[in-house]
# Entry
Amino acid sequence: MDKVIIFDTTLRDGEQAAGATLNIQEKVEIARQLEKLGVDVIEAGMPVNSRTELEAVAQISKEVRNATICGLARALPADIDRAWEAVKEAEDPRIHVFLSASDIHIMHQLKKNRNEILEMARAGVARAKGYLQNVEFSPMDASRAEPAYIYQMLEAVIDAGATTVNIPDTVGYAMPDEFGSLIEGILKNVSNIDKAIISIHCHNDLGMAVANSLEAIKRGARQAECTINGIGERAGNASLEEIVMSIKTRRDFYNLETGIDTTQIYKTSRLVSDLTGFPVQPNKAIVGGNAFRHESGIHQDGVIKMPITYEIIEPQAVGIPASTLVLGKLSGRHAFRERLAELGYSLTEEEFTQAFAAFKELAEKKKEITDRDIESLLAEEKRTVTEDYRLKRLQVTCGDKGMPTAAVRLITPDERTIEDAALGTGPVDAVYKAINRLVGVPNKLTEFSVKSVTEGIDAIGEVLIRIESDGISYTGRGADTDIIVASARAYINALNRLIAAKRAA
Ligand code: KIV
Ligand code: ZN
# Structure
């Protein structure tokens, strides 16, 4: 059976989404999970962007050995040289060169003519080819370019050594039939197309990214560029999980396969959501909280009698655990360890001991501990373990008539205990002001949201915030059964990320 190469660009186009900022450690963690998921290619970043981005790509190249690692570059010598510097230690490195191909971009943005652009594309690929074998080229905004010019450009870059030619619908403008015809046109009109793999890269501005990708695949494309949860520039990119599960679920229709271990999809989706701070909408296909929930009585009746009546995918196929076993305060180490293993976590003994202590503490406050509680608890543990500033104590008084007051005690990076108090317009404001007095890093709070992890009055509350400093946004998350504590943790988390980024810059 024919295979579709899955090219994941969560760490490059996904990270271009407004408000997503990942540090090096987080990028490496996502890349490792993408490797477990079985993606063929990881586009790890655009190394010329910054020293930190180059380092992230270089580290991923060293640590992730079972996927091709790709660095993005404009068709400019400095970009290509930086991309090579970043990926050169990968097991299978790739440089992805891109250059605008539509007249709209060529005239209004690049202010050049078609011949000059053609030469830049050819020279860019030739330069990358001087470094390595595996070179991809993208004519940006291809769906709004004249097809004949795209054919000419592809022929030139394949002659120069491109082994993959990627057709981007950069602004999400194409309709499925039109985009599919472009792929067919390329197959018919590019004389050397047998020397390259056709790839597609679709954006979701009109909600067509997955439909366009699948139509292109049906008509001959064999690499799909996509992101976890569909995150990306503006309305995002084609969602990896939707493309992969469409190909798998409708094998009868596509007669194709991918190398993805679909049981890793849910875990990867949660990790990306957690680290980028982008929640997954409840009705999102494949990974949304409601994707496998049946609410209507008729549907529930059908699913109880035979799941296939209303379920086209088994939740376990994407890694949503089958078990509904709930843990509680009487559950011991053994039960907790087994549950973690079923959920796909492998912790060191030290991490396990810490996680078990946190589990026991939670079980004192909350009667039933579900899988989502465990995920939230482990994410919180992981966040706090690596933090510079840590929350030690928090006390708040508030009410309808009083003056909201917060007293905060923190542990500093050099393990000192510091404390202060502040008044605020509400309890969260008071907490944030007290923390500001202690940490003293100017910033602006731009987003604050709280959601409960599960139903019930004793549920864990997860707080997501974004703060801004020098035009850069930093995400913070915190979880606790007390939402004021969760808010304090989220703020400290965001401040730690801000401080670490400034230190690395
Ligand atoms: O959307 C786009 O055109 C891109 C290219 C760099 C492939 O992201
Ligand atoms: Zn893109």
Notes: The chain has four domains: 2-276, 288-323, 326-384, 387-504. The chain has a mean pLDDT of 94. The pocket of zinc ion (ligand 2) is lined by residues 13, 168, 170, 201, 203, 233 (CB under 6 Å). The first strand starts at residue 2 and ends at 3.
